[in-house]
Design brief:
This protein has about 160 residues and is mainly beta. The protein has a single domain, classed as Alpha-Beta Complex (Nucleoside Triphosphate Pyrophosphohydrolase), CATH 3.90.79. The protein has two helices and eleven strands; from the N terminus they run E-E-E-E-H-E-E-E-E-E-H-E-E. Strands 1, 2, 3, 4, 6, 7, 9, 10 and 11 form a nine-stranded mixed beta sheet that branches. Strands 5-8 form a two-stranded antiparallel sheet. The longest helix has 13 residues. It is globular.
């Protein structure tokens, strides 16, 4: 399948991801997702933006719901554009925070995983993560990534660094 016409692409779903980084310990708070899109995979907490909700508020709310942790002063570092061959078109804003309140707790949605920044578990994550996650978490780079997926198989990718 050929990549979408990204210039005219319109997402059907707006969502967020949050990555809380403990810089002093060299680790990031990830989750093992228990249900929904990507169940079983390791990722950052996140989810769909509710009507009338800002992207940043969604990222903080989803992190609270999935881990019982409140991210403080999150910074948006990128956008992920996903087109799935089944028709799902998903736009995800990616946030990074270095301050938080609360202790990560398992919920019905997620298992918390503090993970070394030097040992990100890409083999258990979405295939696109290896193209941007380290640069965002460690180098604090800003980006736009565009990806075509067939189920959980990545078919094409494009990266822009700003």
């Amino acid at each position: 399948m050929t990549p979408p016409d990204w210039q005219n692409w319109k997402p059907g779903v707006l969502a967020t991801l949050m990555f809380i980084v403990d810089e002093a310990a060299g680790r990031v708070l990830l989750i093992r997702k228990k249900r929904g899109l990507g169940a079983g995979k390791i990722n950052g907490p996140g989810g769909k933006i509710d009507p009338g909700e800002t992207s940043e508020h969604c990222a903080v709310r989803e992190t609270q719901e999935e881990l019982g942790v409140t991210a403080l002063d999150p910074v948006k570092h990128g956008e992920l554009w996903f087109q799935f061959v089944d028709g799902l078109a998903l736009h995800v804003d990616v946030y990074r925070a270095t301050r938080w309140e609360g202790e990560p707790t398992e919920t019905p949605e997620a298992i918390p995983l503090w993970t070394s920044l030097k040992e990100l578990p890409f083999e258990e994550m979405w295939a696109d993560d290896r193209f941007w996650l380290g640069e965002v978490l460690i180098d604090q780079k800003n980006f736009t990534g565009r990806f075509l997926f067939d189920d959980d198989t990545m078919l094409t990718h494009e990266m822009e660094w700003h």
